[in-house]
Specification:
Layout lengths: L1 E2 L7 E3 L2 E2 L9 H9 L8 H4 L4 E6 L7 E5 L15 E3 L5 H4 L5 E4 L12 H12 L5 E6 L3 H19 L2 H8 L3 H8 L3 H22 L7 E6 L3 H5 L10 E6 L12 H6 E6 L14 H14 L3 E3 L4 H4 L12
Parallel strand pairs: 2-7, 5-6, 7-8, 8-9, 9-10, 10-11, 11-12
Antiparallel strand pairs: 1-2, 3-6, 4-5
Helix pairs in contact: 5-8, 6-8
Bound molecules: iron/sulfur cluster (SF4).
Length: 323
């Protein structure tokens, strides 16, 4: 874990690095390329099995390389450059720090990208649960995965208790043909099927009141209207979310429906940094529109320092996790 200059948190933690979204403005990719050591002499890769648990080179263009490290001999931050890498040896870092921090998890990755295995994400969640003194902030460009993971997390404890995952699978496969088939079953088969049905109902009932831990915030990055339209979390009110509109690339038409008003706790707005050719300088009215939409919905706003000149008045910088 490292102290950071990112204004809406105080620490970054990168148990997973690397991302395949390929955003043109990505600062993380530049850093990983600069400090990456993949394939170089003395890199973690060269140290081989003693340190690397898994290493896959796939033909699948969406998962070209995936690596899991349980140790990092040279303490290299990016032993596989910007390819998805699980630094398992970093999982205990939050637990070692006793004083409460606001932690941006995965500043060098999209840990909810489709290429990241569920197990990696679950291990990160477990590490967060083991250090509840901190506030954890996640960000993704793939928010629909939140819904799937949160639902899984909600149901999982009950499944574990009874070790009956198969029952849920059986129920999920039920359709009208299954139901017809049930009618033709023997008495014994029917009884088992009805037990499974009852089991599933009780699991869902128990999971209904389950909430994602309230020291974890699930954020979504949007930079354009197209992304804003697809910002479906699939979360309902089981978790707390936030939006990061950074770097803002155009005037975004933002409206929050009733559901979002319930679980979006903050909107962060920022401009692109660096000197990239083609970098977009936002207009004041783009920012004002977002602030107005947030005010109408009663959602706090955080305008990053790099908007100070464009905004021209004291920046609004509200952080719900600091209240
Ligand atoms: S999603 Fe984030 S980490 Fe991934 S390429 Fe885009 S800016 Fe970089």
């Amino acid at each position: 874990m490292k102290k950071t200059n990112i204004e809406w948190c105080d620490t970054t933690w990168n148990p997973i690095t690397g991302c395949l979204h390929d955003c043109p403005y990505c600062y993380a990719h530049g850093i990983a390329r600069r400090f990456g050591t993949f394939g170089e002499e003395k890199s973690a890769y060269e140290f081989g099995d003693d340190f690397i648990e898994e290493f896959h080179v796939n033909n699948d263009i969406n998962k070209p390389i995936m690596a899991v490290l349980h140790e990092n001999p040279e303490k290299e931050p990016y032993p596989f450059d910007f390819f998805p890498t699980f630094h398992r040896y970093r999982l205990n870092e939050p637990a070692k720090i006793k004083k409460s921090r606001t932690v941006f998890v995965g500043s060098m990755a999209d840990i909810f990208g489709e290429w990241i295995p569920d197990e990696w994400v679950q291990e990160v969640f477990k590490a967060c649960e083991a250090a509840p003194q901190h506030t954890y902030l996640f960000l993704t460009k793939n928010p629909t995965r939140y819904g799937r993971i949160v639902l899984h997390e909600a149901i999982n404890p009950y499944v574990k208790q009874t070790n009956s995952l198969e029952h849920i699978k059986i129920h999920d496969m039920m359709n009208i043909d299954d139901i017809r088939a049930v009618k033709n079953m023997t008495h014994q088969e029917n009884r088992i099927r009805l037990q499974n049905e009852g089991y599933k109902m009780s699991v869902m009932k128990s999971a209904q009141n389950w909430m994602f831990p309230n020291n974890m915030y699930l954020g979504v990055t949007i930079t354009t209207n197209k992304q804003a339209e697809k910002r479906n979390y699939g979360l309902s009110s089981r978790a707390q979310g936030f939006l990061s509109i950074e770097p803002i690339e155009e005037k975004i038409n933002l409206e929050f429906d009733e559901k979002e008003r319930g679980f979006i706790k903050l909107v962060i707005v920022g401009a692109e940094t660096g000197r990239r050719k083609g970098k977009i300088i936002p207009k004041r009215e783009w920012i004002a529109d977002i602030v107005n939409a947030c005010r109408t919905a009663g959602i706090p706003v955080f305008l990053k320092n790099n908007l100070a000149e464009i905004w021209g008045e004291p920046l609004i910088q509200e952080l719900p996790w600091e209240v």
